[in-house]
Write a structure and sequence with these properties.
The protein is about 60% helix and about 5% strand. The chain is mostly helical. It has one domain: MetI-like fold (Orthogonal Bundle), CATH 1.10.3720. The longest helix has about 35 residues.
């Protein structure tokens, strides 16, 4: 009995309407059917698809605005920000002034004693600094109101520059040390340890004296001329970056072993791309929390060096310089007669630093899951 020949079976795939273009036709039993025009399906894109970070940002923002610490800190910082922005309106510079940060003097007084606050100056707002609404300070009769108002701009400027330079240097060195590891990590961390051997304030004072001796600092072929408070700012930034470098390095050492980093390496991403696009965005939060806490501390450090005579020159709108100018009058009159020369700038410094410290504490409480969980209980 002859065997039936086994033929291979092939599956005939019928074309579907989705696989044809709108101009094609589908043939069935020799008859042609014209297909209707079908628009391609486009999924609806919502706002969270366009801005994937927005829900998390709004959630953190709600926590931030409902935290009493952050609300108090934001109120203080908003007040000082308003004073800094509106300084030309609150205390207009005298005509012909070359530098708005130079505190004007009143040469109409024949006595060399500070003048008390003038209540009549507060009958209008903003008060006229020529009437000395907060009094004068020093033998040279510098107006306290003008110095405190324009000193707010100095505080914001020196804080942003110190934190910005420290953060950039710390991110660069910490990222290289944490990502590459090995000998490079050892060398960079030993350099950090050398900086940390010296007390922070002592190192800042020494660097300030050294930098003040140079007429200019050569940087990439340019001559950077520094004087006054900017010498102190650069000296502090050159000492302050070490903490940021250690924070970034520690976070990168643990983050670089996670799955998303291994996946980026597997697809051939370069080391720079992995650091910038994957590691830093996922490890930057502790550094930002520390930066918010460090902002007020560095403003206080600049004020301390100005008080010691190493920062802003006499007559410059800087809160530390105002306190330095008042030190000879603290003892006179039993410490109470000329109280305003010390209390006015000291209160400004205290409230400014308190605002940033409260914001830093609130950010830490929001982002730290242990503290957030403990608060929930």
């Amino acid at each position: 009995m002859a065997k039936k020949s086994e033929l291979p079976l092939t599956k005939v795939q019928q074309p579907s309407a989705n696989s044809l273009s709108p101009s094609e036709t589908l043939s069935t039993d020799g008859k042609s059917l014209d297909l209707p025009q079908v628009e391609p399906y486009r999924p609806r894109r919502e706002l969270r698809d366009l801005l994937p970070w927005l829900p998390g940002f709004l959630k953190v923002g709600r926590r931030f605005l409902t935290n009493p610490l952050s609300v108090t800190g934001l109120t203080l910082i908003a007040f000082f920000a308003f004073v800094a922005i509106a300084a030309p309106w609150l205390a207009p510079p005298p005509p012909g002034s070359n530098d708005n940060l130079e505190i004007p003097q009143d040469f109409n007084f024949t006595v060399a004693f500070p003048q008390p606050p003038n209540d009549a100056a507060w009958q209008i707002f903003p008060p006229d600094w020529n009437l000395h609404p907060l009094g004068t300070t020093g033998n040279n009769q510098y107006d306290l109101y003008y110095g405190v108002v324009w000193g707010t701009r100095t505080a914001f400027t020196v804080g942003l520059v110190v934190i910005g330079v420290s953060l950039l240097i710390g991110l660069f060195i910490g990222s290289i040390a944490g990502f590459l590891g090995g000998l490079i990590d050892e060398v960079l961390m030993r350099i950090v340890d050398i900086f940390l051997i010296f007390p922070f304030l002592v190192a800042a004072v020494v660097l300030t004296v050294v930098l003040s001796s140079f007429p200019y600092i050569p940087i990439f072929g340019y001559h950077l001329v520094l004087h006054g408070v900017w010498v102190v700012v650069l000296a502090i930034a050159l000492v302050n970056w070490t903490t940021y470098a250690r924070l970034v390095r520690g976070d990168l050492l643990s983050a670089k072993e996670k799955e998303y980093v291994q996946a980026a390496r597997a697809v051939g991403a370069s080391g720079t791309r992995i650091i910038v696009r994957h590691l830093l965005p996922n490890t930057i939060y502790p550094v930002l929390v520390y930066a918010s806490l460090d902002f007020g501390s560095q403003v206080l450090t600049v004020a301390a060096l100005s008080f010691l005579g190493l920062g802003a020159p006499l007559g410059y709108a800087d809160w530390g310089q105002l306190i330095n100018n008042a030190q000879s009058w603290i003892i006179h009159g039993g410490g109470t007669q000329y109280w305003y020369v010390l209390v006015v700038p000291a209160v400004a410094i205290s409230l400014f630093i308190l605002g940033f410290n409260l914001i830093g504490d609130a950010v830490r409480d929001i982002f730290d899951p242990h503290l957030r969980g403990r608060g929930a209980r």
